[in-house]
Specification:
The protein has helices at about 1-5, 10-15, 35-40, 60-65, 130-135, 145-150, and strands spanning about 75-90, 105-110, 125, 160-170, 190-200. The chain is an alpha+beta fold and about 240 residues long. A five-stranded antiparallel sheet has the order 3-2-1-4-5.
Length: about 240
């Protein structure tokens, strides 16, 4: 029952009126063109319908090595099943109008296929202040509560099912193994995330031994230009996200 209540129905939360934390708009206070493009996607407030969930975008498939900027789409959502390695407060960012208090900053959850996965074998999924506020009446999605629930006794390995929107955080192209192979500053596997998270379910049972990564999709990947001036990046089907 506790795990079920922690998961809860995202559709109920999505139907509630959304107040903007600290009056911060969906675009945040971004000044750079790239951040202005990315922030509304990070701050989506609608839960993805079932028809938007891409069944091919599993955690293993997203972790698959190789160039992946064109592998997935921001128009799609995904369900990841894996184990939690870490939970922490996100940085002070333009997307949240440079808020400093944890309640108005993202929560970063590091997911992997095994509790012993290294940093470059992990995917980042994020709870945003908007979704934390939407869920407040039925579940505590504060960073401290999520850390207590997902890292009991500070130990990694809790199995979870995470649902939400796929998003490529292009601000981290140079810190992801798939787009910067072997880079000394890499701390993640890929720029692709679930961001925002719209549902969390704790799964029963202990973490399994590390399975093999899914093979990379066969389509030819095309890299983004490192700097852009257009509203949308070449190759993306990335219309402006909806908000409630």
């Amino acid at each position: 029952m506790k795990a079920y209540l922690f998961f809860i129905a995202a559709a109920f939360a999505a139907s509630r009126a959304v107040a903007q934390p600290q009056g911060c708009p969906l675009e945040g206070d971004a000044k750079q063109a790239l951040a202005k493009e990315l922030n509304p996607f990070k701050n989506r407030t609608d839960a993805p319908p079932a028809a938007k969930i891409n069944p091919a975008a599993t955690l293993g498939a997203v972790l698959a090595p190789g160039p992946d900027l064109q592998r997935w789409s921001r128009d799609d959502a995904a369900v990841f099943e894996g184990v939690v390695i870490n939970v922490k407060v996100g940085g002070i960012e333009s997307v949240n109008c440079h808020a400093k208090d944890p309640a108005h900053r993202d929560t970063h959850i590091e997911l992997a296929l095994s509790p012993t996965a290294t940093s470059t074998q992990r995917v980042i999924v994020e709870v945003t202040p908007h979704w934390r506020e939407q869920m407040a009446a039925i579940a505590d999605w504060s960073t401290s509560a999520l850390k207590q629930q997902l890292l009991p006794n500070g130990q990694p390995g809790t199995r979870v099912r995470i649902t939400g929107w796929l998003f490529d955080d292009l601000e981290h192209v140079k810190q992801a193994e798939n787009t910067n192979p072997g880079g000394s500053s890499n701390w993640r596997a890929t720029v692709w995330e679930i961001h925002p998270i719209t549902a969390i379910q704790v799964l029963p049972g202990a973490a399994l031994a590390a399975p093999a990564l899914a093979p990379a999709p066969t389509q030819k990947a095309r890299h983004h230009r490192p700097r852009i001036k257009r509203k949308c990046i070449r190759g993306h089907r990335c219309g402006r996200p909806k908000s409630n």
